[in-house]
């Protein structure tokens, strides 16, 4: 990792406010590792906790943290990391609302700068090993929604700001400030500010690059990846070039999922379109929003959509109303809840 960081510093210039982050598995993280990461230039660390219950972790074949997480986080802050994240997952085998609340409680006591509650994505048609988890019993959608609700309630009462559909940050955090100013953005790495995000360049096998006009994924096979890199410097397995309409739809969906807001006038002006043209590109119909309005999840007035706090529970579903490609796709996806 030190060699990689030296190479990056050699070929690229860093901005003053660059966020240089590493996601770590706490099961293998030593205090010396934290010190070394700080020395080579990292300023934010994310710990993949998933759950604090060792019995639940055992079911998903994951070891618990090698050291007390609270001690690790205290050490990170002590030596100067400007941010520490904790990641939790709800919807795992044998999780209950009460057990998940206990994990959230422990996370709040640790007091990270940011906290994420990811919904477990059950995709056994992609990851065959997940089929085994079905034999243990997975929480149903109603139970998962209750877990999400419990986490939201506990974290906001503790002073965290709800960011998008699964992130939480302290009020002084840059994500909270960006949300307040409707300048929040999202890419494959999660939420970011529009000021600090840009194109995503993926390095390594299976990595995905997210450009302004395309998505590119490297080959998943490590040996094939190394062979292709040595031959040509590239190991692309597949890619997708976005049309202008794709880019416009992505902008709309990103605004909804990040900022809970979408204005036909603003997007039309940005892309030099009429609102009629924009509605045609989105294949928009107000009838698609009727159920969300009736359930008091959104407001839609003067061609401006605003999500209410409860609307973020189903923000993916709301965003789907603006994606006409979903009805033509044959791909399978994880459930939104």
Walk me through the structure.
The protein is α+β, with helices and mostly antiparallel strands and 337 residues long. The chain has 3 domains: 2-158, no CATH class; 208-241, no CATH class; 244-327, Orthogonal Bundle (Arc Repressor Mutant, subunit A). The protein is built from 14 helices and 14 strands. It has helices spanning 2-11, 31-39, 54-59, 69-78, 97-110, 131-134, 141-157, 174-180, 222-232, 244-259, 264-270, 275-282, 290-294, 315-320; strands at 21-24, 44-50, 83-90, 114-119, 161-163, 167-169, 184-187, 190-193, 208-210, 214-218, 236-241, 261-263, 298-301, 304-307. It has a 6-stranded mixed beta sheet with strand order 1-2-3-4-6-5, with helices on both faces. Strands 9-10-11 form a 3-stranded antiparallel beta sheet, with no helix packed on it. A hairpin with a 3-residue loop joins strand 9 (208-210) and strand 10 (214-218). Helix 5 packs parallel to helix 7 and helix 11 (264-270) crosses helix 12. The longest helix has 17 residues, at 141-157. The radius of gyration is 21 Å and the shape is globular. The protein starts with a helix and ends in a 17-residue tail after the last helix. Residues 329-334 have low confidence and may be disordered.
């Amino acid at each position: 990792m030190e060699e990689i960081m030296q190479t990056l510093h050699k070929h690229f210039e860093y901005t003053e406010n660059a966020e240089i982050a590493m996601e770590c598995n706490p099961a293998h993280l030593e205090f010396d590792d934290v010190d070394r990461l700080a020395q080579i230039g990292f300023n934010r660390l994310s710990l993949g906790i998933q759950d604090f219950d060792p019995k639940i972790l055992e079911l998903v074949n994951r070891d618990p943290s090698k050291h007390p997480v609270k001690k690790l986080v205290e050490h990170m802050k002590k030596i100067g990391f400007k941010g520490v994240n904790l990641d939790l997952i709800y919807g795992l085998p044998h999780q209950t609302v009460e057990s998940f609340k206990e994990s959230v409680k422990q996370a709040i006591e640790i007091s990270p700068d940011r906290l994420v509650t990811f919904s477990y994505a059950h995709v056994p048609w992609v990851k065959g090993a997940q089929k085994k988890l079905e034999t243990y019993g997975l929480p149903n959608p109603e139970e998962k929604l209750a877990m999400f609700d419990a986490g939201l309630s506990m974290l906001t009462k503790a002073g965290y700001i709800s960011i998008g559909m699964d992130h939480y940050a302290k009020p002084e955090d840059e994500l909270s400030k960006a949300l307040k100013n409707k300048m929040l953005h999202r890419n494959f790495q999660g939420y970011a500010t529009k000021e600090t995000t840009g194109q995503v360049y993926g390095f390594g096998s299976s990595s995905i690059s997210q450009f302004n006009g395309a998505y590119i994924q490297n080959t998943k096979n490590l040996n094939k990846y190394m062979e292709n890199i040595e031959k040509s410097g590239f190991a692309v397995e597949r890619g997708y070039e976005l049309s202008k309409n794709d880019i416009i739809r992505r902008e709309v969906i990103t605004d909804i999922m990040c900022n809970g807001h979408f204005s036909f006038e603003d997007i039309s002006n940005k892309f030099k379109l009429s609102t009629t043209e924009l509605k045609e590109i989105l294949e928009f119909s107000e009838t698609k929003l009727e159920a969300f309005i009736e359930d008091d999840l959104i407001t839609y007035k003067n061609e401006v959509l605003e999500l209410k706090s409860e609307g973020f529970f189903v923000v993916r579903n709301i965003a789907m109303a603006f994606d006409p490609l979903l009805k033509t796709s044959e791909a399978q996806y994880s459930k939104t809840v």
